[in-house]
Amino acid sequence: MNTEQELLDSAALTVYRLNGQFLTIGDGLAAPAGISVAWWQVLAAVQQQPLPVAGIARAVGVTRQSVQRIADLLVGQGMCEYRPNPAHKRAKLVAITTAGEAAIARIDPQHAAMARRVAEALGPAEFATTVQTLTRLSAALESIITADDPATRTAPPPPAG
To answer: Start and end of every HTH marR-type domain (predicted)?
Structure first.
């Protein structure tokens, strides 16, 4: 295995571990509001503006089907509502309601405290640098995914000549 492969493996394993850690922390933060971390993700995605299910799925990096299931549950609990989408007749917009805003407000104090703890553990500058690095890694991977069709392109083309 070459160094680049080792780096990719290490990055992936670290991100998988981080995902598990974030889910554990998120579930702990969301539980007092009576919601799961998955529900919180969807609520947070539509907090600034209503989005179609596909837009939420892209924002949080999960399947459209899982977002649809959660959106239906949130609508059933009165934390979100479906609204007409002027850009698309069939793809309704998911919008947060007052009850959804209240759930996020119950999470916010513990969320802020956790953010302070992470900033204290890393230092504010290192925390910001870490977020920037993770964002750049995500953008690079997204660029590669979009540029390549993994079903048909598994290896670089042979050298010309």
So the answer is: 4-139
CATH at residue 128: 1.10.10.10
Q: Does residue 18 lie in a domain region?
A: no
Helix (H, G, I), strand (E, B) or coil at 82: strand
Indicate the SS3 state at residue 83. Answer: strand
3-state DSSP assignment of residue 81 = strand
Global confidence as pTM = 0.81
- Residue with tokens 């513990």, as numbered in its chain: 110
What range defines the domain where residue 97 resides? Answer: 28-147
pLDDT digits (tens, 9 = 90+) for 78-105: 999 999 999 888 899 999 999 999 999 9
Q: What angle do helix axes 98-122 and 37-45 make, rounded to 10 degrees?
A: 100
* DSSP letter for each residue of 9-59: HHHHHHHHHHHHHHHHHHHHHHGGGT--HHHHHHHHHTSSS-EEHHHHHHH
